[in-house]
Amino acid sequence: MNVYSDSSHSALKYLKDTEVNINNVLLMIGDFNIRDSLWDPSFPFYSSISDDLIIIANSFNLALSTPTNPCPTRYSDTAGESNSTIDLMFLCYGSSELDHHSIHPENHLSSDYAPLSIGIPIFEEVILTSKLSIPPKSDQETAFIKEITSNFKNLDTSDIGDKEKLDHIVNRLGIIIDQAWTKNTKKLRASKHSKQWWTDECSHSLNIYRLTRSLENWKNFKKVVKNVKRDFFDAKIQEVANKSHGPWELMDWISRHKLPAIKAIEHNGCPCLSPESLWDALHSTFNTAFNRQVDLNVLNEINCKPTSQWYPFSKEEFKQVINKCNNSSAPGPDKLTWRHLKSIINQDDCLNNIINIANLCFDLEYWPNFFKLSSTIIIPKPNKMSYDQPKAFRPIVLLNTLEKLIEKVIVERIQFTVASNDFIHPSQLGGLKFKSTTDAGVALTHIVRSGWAKGKMTSILVFDISQFFPSLNHQLLSLILKKAGLDPKVSFFFENYLVRRKTSYVWNDLHSPSFEVNIRVGQGFALSPILSALYLSLFLYTLEKRLKNLKIPISTLSFVNDGLIITQNKSLNTSNSHLFCSYNVLSKLLDSFGLVIEHMKTEIFHFNRSYGIFNPLPLDLTPIGGPILHLKNT
What whole-number distance in Å separates Cα of residue 10 and Cα of residue 159? Predict the structure, then answer.
C-alpha cells in the first residue's frame, strides 16, 4: 500500500477515522510528512502524530522497518533547511521474507527524495508445456490395458489368509498399474495450437506433405484431418447424448478450471507466502474436527435394527456398478480410468481376483494401505466475496479407481440394507439413490401448500452444518453402522477403513507432500454420501424424539449438510417461539454429534399467503449463540 500524507496529515486522518477494508497488507510505504526522533536521529523532538501512524500500522499488522543504511530520505535545496527522514516503510509482522529496506541517496538525482527499496522474493514458477499421457483409443492405450490384464490374471488371490498377504497383493496391483503406465505413456506437448482430435494419422500425413511439398499430399492431409475431426465429434456427440448432463457437457463452464488469481491465503493472521505454509494452512483447516468430542449416549435414544448377514460379492454386482460409471471422470493417483477398468474386468479372471480382494477386506476387517492413498483437489466455493481464506475452498478427494469400484459396490449393498429395514430417516433427502434436490423442492412445496389449505403460515429456519464431511466422528459412525442392522464385520471393517489414510493436496499444478488423515470422511469418497446419510439419520431421529417430548410441533427436511426446521401456525409469534426452541435443541444435539452450525448462514423464511403488508420483526437467536435473523417475506 502506497501512502502520501500532506502537511495536514489528511491520509492519516482518513485511515484513522474510516474503517478501511484492506486485508493481508504486506507492506506500507510512502511520504508521511512526519518528523520524529523515532526514525530521524537528527531530529531531537517527538511528534504526537507519530502515535497515530503507529496505531494505524498496527491495525494492518505492520511494524516499522529499520533501514540497512540509516540516512535522510528528503534532501532540501533551501538554504538553512536540514535534510530529513519522512519517507518510511512498514512491513508485515513476523515475515521472514520481508526484512529491512534500503535508502539510495545517490539515486535521488534531480528529485529531492531518495528512493527506498526492499527485496521481495518471487518463487520461480515452472510452466509445464508437456506431460506424460496415454492418448485414448491409441496403440499405447491398447498395450497398457493388455499388459495390466495379463498381469492381473496371473495374481493368485485364492490363498490370502492374513492382512500382510492382502496388503502385498494389493500393492502388487499398484505396481503392475504403475509399471504399465510408465512403459506406455507418451510425452505430449501442449501449445495454443493443440487439438483434442489430432491423431498420429494426422501427424503422419502432415510429415509426408512437408517432405514432398506436393499438392496431392496436401489434399490427402486435408482429407485425413476432415475424416478424423468428423469421427471425433461424432463420438463426442454420442457420448454427450448418453450422459446425465446431456448437452451441458459441451459448455466451457462445466470443464476443469484453474483456481482464481487471488491474494495470498491468510491463516491464523499470517499470509501463506510459501508452498509449505499453504499446505499446512489447508491441512489444518480441513481437519478442524480432530479434538471434537462426541456424546455416545445419543445412541441409546433409538432402537437397533435386526442384524442382516453380509454375503460375498457377486460378479453381477460389480458389472452393474461399473456400467454406470462415467468414462470421463477424473482418475485418481493410480491414473487408471473407468474406460481402462471396464476393459480389464471383461476378463473373468481379472474380475474374480478383484472380487476375492473385496471379500477378503471384509473377512479380515481390513482396508489395504494402497487403497488409503488419495489426492485432494482444492477447488473454490462459488460466489465468495474473497478467496483469501482456506475455508473459501472445498477439498475434493480423488481415490484410486480400483478402490472406487469396490467402494461403489459396497455403497449399493449398504443402501439396499438400510432402505429395506427403514433405518434412513424419511426427511433425509441427500446422499441416497432416487433422492435429489428436486424431491426436497417438491416436499417443501407440498408442506407450504397444505399449510395454506389449513389457513396456516409456514415458517422455515434454514441451517448449514460447518465443515460437515471433515467433522464426521469415526467412532460414532462405526457404532451407527451397528445400529443400522449391518453385520458386525461391516462395522469392524469401517473402523480400519476410516483411519491412517494419507492424502496429497493439489493446488493447480502444485502437489504437496503426503499428509496423514485420521479424521473426516473425504468429500469425493464413493462411500461418503451413504455414510453421511446414516450419520444424519440417527441425528434426525434423535432430534425428532426430543422435540416431540417437548411438545414442539416441528418437522424437518435435510439434504446432506443443509437442513430445514419447519413449523406451521396461524400466529407468527407462536412460529418464532417454536423455531427459537428448536434451534436451541438442534445446536446442542449437533454438538453431541461433533458437528457445528455455521450461524452466519442461518436464514429464516415465512411463506405467507396474505396480500396485505407483511413486515415481521427479526428473530433474535443471540441468547442461544445464533444470529439476529431478519425475516424474508416470500
Answer: 83
CA-based end-to-end distance of the chain: 44
**Burial of residue 397 (number of CB atoms within 10 Å: 0-12, 13-18, 19+):** buried
For residues 294 and 475, the answer to whether their CB atoms sit within 8 Å is yes
- Are 424 and 554 in contact by the 8 Å Cβ rule? The answer is no
**Contact in structure between 389 and 381 (CB atoms under 8 Å):** no
What torsion do the CA atoms of 242, 245, 247, 251 make, to the nearest 10 degrees? -140
What contacts 24+ positions apart, CB below 8 Å, involve 375-382? Answer: 375/332, 375/333, 375/503, 375/504, 375/505, 375/506, 375/511, 376/286, 376/503, 376/504, 376/505, 376/506, 376/522, 377/330, 377/506, 377/524, 378/259, 378/282, 378/505, 378/506, 378/507, 379/259, 380/259, 380/260
Tell me the residue length of the chain.
634
Q: Is the pLDDT of residue 342 over 60?
A: yes
How distant is the alpha carbon of residue 118 from its chain centre? 36
Percentage of the chain exceeding pLDDT 90: 40
What is the grid cell recorded at 340? 481402462
Give the separation between CA 542 and CA 265, rounded to whole angstroms: 39
Q: Using the 8-state DSSP alphabet, how is residue 249 labeled?
A: G
Nearest Cα neighbor of 577 from 625, 545, 620, 631 is 620
- pLDDT class for 261, splitting at 50, 70, 90? low
Give the integer Cα–Cα distance in Å for 395 and 467. Answer: 10
Tell me the DSSP string of 72-95.
-SB---STTPPPB--EEEEEETT-
Residue 236's Cα: distance from chain center in Å? 29
What value does the mean pLDDT of the chain take? 86
> Residue 620 pairs with which residues in a beta bridge?
628
pLDDT of residue 26: 82
* Phi-psi region at 61: left, alpha or beta (left = phi > 0; alpha = psi -120 to 50): left
Residue 126's contacts (CB-CB under 8 Å, 6 or more residues apart) are 509
The 501-507 sheet, strands edge to edge = 393-399, 373-380, 501-507, 510-517
Return the C-alpha torsion angle 157, 158, 164, 168, nearest 10.
-20
Largest CA-CA distance found in the chain, in angstroms, rounded: 99
Q: What is the mean pLDDT of residues 230-239?
A: 84
Give 520-571 pLDDT, tens digit per residue.
677 768 888 899 999 999 999 999 999 999 999 999 999 888 999 999 999 8
Residue 296 has pLDDT above 80, yes or no: yes
Residues 6 or more apart whose CB falls under 8 angstroms from that of 183 comprise 143, 144, 147
- pLDDT band at 210, cuts 50/70/90? very high
The confidence band for 248, taking pLDDT boundaries of 50, 70 and 90, is low
Is 568 in a helix, a strand, or coil? strand
Distance CA 202, CA 223 (A): 10
**Rounded Cα distance, 135 and 141, in Å:** 7
Identify the residue whose cell numbers are 528528503.
Answer: 74
**Rounded Cα gap, residues 203 and 197, in angstroms:** 12
Report the b/e string of 252-286 with b at 16+ CB within 10 A: eeeeeeeeeeeeebbbeebbbbeeeebbbbbbebb
Cell of 133: 499421457
pLDDT digits (tens, 9 = 90+) for 76-94: 887 778 888 889 999 887 7
